[in-house]
Amino acid sequence: MAKTVTFVGTKGGTMKTACSLSVATVLALQGKRVALVDCDPQGSSTRSSATLEDDGEGGVRPIRTGRVPDALTAPPHLVPLAPIEEAGGELLLYRASMSLAGATTDQIREHIERAKQNVDYVVVDTMPVMGAPTFGTILAADLVVVPTDTSHDSREQLPDTLEVVRQVRPDILVRVVLTKADGRERLTREAIAELQNDFAREVYGVSIPVSAAAKNAGAEFAPSVLVCQGEKVADAYHALGALIAKDLAGVRQ
Ligand SMILES: Nc1ncnc2c1ncn2[C@@H]1O[C@H](COP(=O)(O)OP(=O)(O)O)[C@@H](O)[C@H]1O
Ligand SMILES: [Mg+2]
Description:
Elements: E1 3-7, H1 16-29, E2 33-39, H2 44-50, E3 52-54, E4 60-62, E5 77-78, H3 82-86, E6 90-95, H4 105-115, E7 121-126, H5 132-140, E8 143-149, H6 152-168, E9 173-181, H7 186-198, E10 208-209, H8 212-220, H9 224-227, H10 232-250
Parallel strand pairs: 1-7, 1-8, 2-6, 2-7, 8-9, 9-10
Antiparallel strand pairs: 3-4, 5-6
Helix pairs in contact: 1-2, 1-10, 4-5
The protein binds adenosine-5'-diphosphate (ADP) and magnesium ion.
Adenosine-5'-diphosphate (ADP) is lined by residues 12-18, 44, 128, 180, 208, 210-211, 214-215, 218-219, 224, 233.
């Protein structure tokens, strides 16, 4: 049975989409079959990689033509990402329909259960709201990851987010990953110290660094881990993917 991780949070812009897209890509680069389920009605994570094509030089570039079928009604679309195929992996994209915002918890849960068939991992991107659809993703998951950027806003919302996750699934494994980290900035050092102090059990030992190229990749909806190869941000995503795979391997289903 597929192991499932969902990226959640109440604040937009904390890199839920960027992390889910790159982590799904990292797992696929390990030679695994991965389903990326986009449960944000804005559909950024799948709009994105669904429209990537091989640039003929081992990299990828986004194209604008592909369309991902509605996951609730159609089979998943297979993305031809050359590095993933070379690794023997696959990345399947399931995109939720625009009506998703009104979907019930059970509908979303069932949607993800369906995506679990014939894959090793399911990676879920959610909307920045702790509502019914996001609860459905938590109920279907083995691990919840809360990306948190260095801003005060993001950190202030974290305790409430974790509490809601535990109300939905008291037994679920929850992790926090710091994003947009810049070691030269006071805010980042403050955030690391605070997270290590207040969430010692939850916080991952790796942070995703701030990166101009990754930011642009985000705007182009391409996985940073492929676009920024050789950069610190790509190394960080590989490390995060490994930690998530390890956590998922330890979860009994
Ligand atoms: N490593 C990075 N450093 C700085 N900005 C980034 C990085 N990766 C992504 N971004 C940008 O951060 C913004 C929010 O990311 P996104 O993944 O869409 O957040 P969310 O899904 O949580 O709303 C996007 O504009 C994206 O381009
Ligand atoms: Mg998003």
